[in-house]
Amino acid sequence: MAILYLLAALLYLAVLVLFGLLHVRGGYSPIRHAVSDYGVGPTRSLFAAYASAGIVAALLLGAAILAGGQFPVRGGLYLLAMAAFRLGVLAFPTDIEGERLTRNGKLHYGFAIASFALTYMAIDVLHPIALPLVADWARWVLSGLRWAVTLSLGGVVICLIPALRRVFGLFERIYLLSTALWLGILASAMA
């Protein structure tokens, strides 16, 4: 089980590195554009690597949580379901902001919304159980990140209002980074 946690932690580290590379190599605004926009065009393969690393990390972490018996089963199941929905995000490319909404784009949005919700649900279930199991430094970091996760998800939802859409990318990036950090630190602390 410790090996599953360790592999998940390493993959979440890869997620963070690939996320950074997307922003260095992409041509999109980190404030206005959705991260999924990197999945269309020249950064498509890099986006696929980023998404795949996140999918496998969630699968490994979910399996470790289910095998360990320390956390509620639903926390592991949420991570496994989130990984499945992220496959849908990867399989159905987004429509770039301002373009006509296609069937693939609608499917992409549905899978993305479900994966965001399941990620939040997993963290919400796992957080109170994790705190007494991890070292002091991890407890403080996880607690701070949980606030970032909650507030940024609220920002993502609010920025779906057309007048605020121009800052959607900022809140989405904060959400994606804070959730990857939260899950990666949990995996590392449990390894």
List keywords for this structure.
191 residues; 0% strand; DUF998; Membrane protein; transmembrane
Number of domains: 1
Tell me, briefly, the overall form: globular
Q: What is the mean pLDDT?
A: 95
Q: What is the helix/strand order?
A: HHHHHH
Fraction of residues in H or I helices: over 70%
Strand content: under 5%
Distance between the termini: 8 Å
Query: How many beta strands in the DSSP annotation?
Result: 0
Number of helical elements: 6
Mind summarizing the main beta sheet?
none
Q: How does the helix and strand content classify structurally? A: mainly alpha
What oligomeric arrangement do these chains adopt?
single chain
Identify low-pLDDT runs: none
Return Rg in Å: 16 Å
Describe this structure in words.
By secondary structure, this protein is mainly alpha-helical. The protein has one domain (2-190). Helix content is 74%, strand content 0%. It contains six helices and no strands. The chain has helices at 2-25, 44-68, 73-91, 103-130, 136-158, 168-190. Helix 2 (44-68) packs antiparallel against helix 3 (73-91), helix 3 (73-91) runs antiparallel to helix 4 and helix 4 (103-130) runs antiparallel to helix 5. The longest helix has 28 residues, at 103-130. The chain is globular.
